[in-house]
Amino acid sequence: MTQQTMDNSKTTNRRGLTWRVVLISLIVVPLNAYWIVRIEIIPDMAHSTTLSLMFTAVYTLVFLAALNWLLRALAPRLALSQSELLLTYSMVCIGSAMASHDFIAVLIPLFTWTFWMATPTNKWDILINPRMPEWLTVRDYHVMRGFYEGGVSPYQPYILSAWLRPMAIWLVFIFMLVVVMLCLNAIVRKRWLDDEHLACSLVYLPVEISQPRPTLFRSKLFWIGFAIAGSIQIWNRLAFFHPILPTIQIEPVNMATGFKGRPWDVITLLPRSFFPFLIGLGYLMPADFVFSFWFFYLFWKGQRVLSTTLGLDRIRGFPFCNAQSFGAYILFGIYGLWLARGYVKEVYRAIIGAGSRLSDQHEPLTYRTAAVVGLFALGGLVWFSATMGMRVWVSVAFFLIYYFIGLTLTRMRAQFAVPIHSVGYSPVTVLTRLLGTRSFPKKDLVGIANYFWFNRAYRGHAMPHQMEAMKMQDQTAPDNRGTVPALALAAVIGAVVTFWAILHLYYNLGATAKGGLNMWVPENYEMLTSWLLAPESPQWRETIAMGVGALFALFLQTMRMRFVNWPFHPLAYAISGDYLSNFMWMPLFLAWLIKSSIIKYGSHKLYQRLMPIFLGLILGEFLIGGTINLVSLALDLRRPFCFFVP
Fold first, then answer.
1. How many domains are contained in the chain?
2. Which pLDDT tens digit goes with each residue over 164-176?
């Protein structure tokens, strides 16, 4: 539960990556990936990968830990060490990120979408299809018909041969994408975890679960929290099937329906929710950050009201909340790089062999290896883009922005343990809005649109999970050099199983009949159609809004440096403007109210003593809800389980 607990276990564990870990992961990573595909895409009801702490991965870890406790009692030599359990958990997380509906789940339908959905109205046969690379798509009518309508076995030779080449090519692309993430994390790991001591608080619960003699489950306070969250889930499922029972309303209820007339009617969404697991996760977060989050959430709503009052809402998109938020993200990322400039210089000296003061002897990868492999993989991504027709500078700029966002999200998770994260801007929006779609040839625009699938949202981003895996291995294994190959292997396994699972389910059930892709895929090519038919000049208003967001975040950061008790955090300003904040703000407000009251009127010692209650809230909802989810899937019930509406 605590840093000291993690440190004390380091000397008693074997190396994390062993053949046993590989063999177990070959079983649990595919099972977990299939589970995610089944609940997030068909019927699009429960969402694990939109959470920083994925409930399916935690459920799997508890199951493995329970089996391991049994082995420890019956056959101690066969039991896994804590580092082995945690590395297996991390591999499950990476495999889950591959299966998320912000990643491969959006990619696969793109193989066929514009060919199956082309009509004389949308003119895709003229606008888009001739510019789509043949080697990345599936165009055979009979192959596509089974995919969309279902009732067909996908294991027929003509179907398998049509899908094999594009899936294999995209698999190589995904592997290179993940390898660059691993190399970047290997380079910054020492700076963030050893020098700055970022807590990575989201690893506390997995570390406690995997303890050889976990004290968490012997705590009465833990079982109180577990019983509260678990009982609510059981009661609400009973109430769903027996409407005579009253529901305990923890899921979102929109309070904005009571706002009538201008300017208040601009607040169209103000949900009230009481998710126990979010209250528990909020308890792990720094109190000042949680306060800043819910404050700035209301601040964004106030901006909209004020804009309407002043008549500025007549300007399309005003007040450009996503642009302001992204400006704050940029400031946070640049500020982090500026603070680490000395470290970056020493890393560079180590790479070129110029006598660096840094030692990479105990790093997951040596700095030189990380740099060479990362640059090679990045070059592969640029070459891949060039074969689609994108110009080199466009693809280089695209991936630099992408990895900048990835590093920013990773640091944000490591420092503040945010339960959900999504960025309204991506390389797609930055390039097309700041430079204008008129600035790009049509092949560039098609290539950018084909990359929208892994830039739609960053909720299930793999990079933060990689850093958390390194944190857990640092604390529990004397040798962390197996972490990088283990996570790379997990990405491959997760990607392959996700490709198979989606094809298997869609060909049996029908993509448009049972799948949720109608929510995600159309936006990709509707966006591309508008770019091709009505190219636009640079969006200067959004660029100015981005600058305003960066300057305001700089002001907040400056005030934090000048005044010790300054309560407003610039990164909370950035993240609270996202759509998902609607479903987090009230549980995090309650967590802040509880935590700050305990610290103010009690003590930090009392805060630590009460921690098991809030870990119980998380596990109670995850384990009971996950069990209900699995049972409901087995019985083919319409509504298995849903944490929140993403």
1. 1
2. 999 999 999 999 9
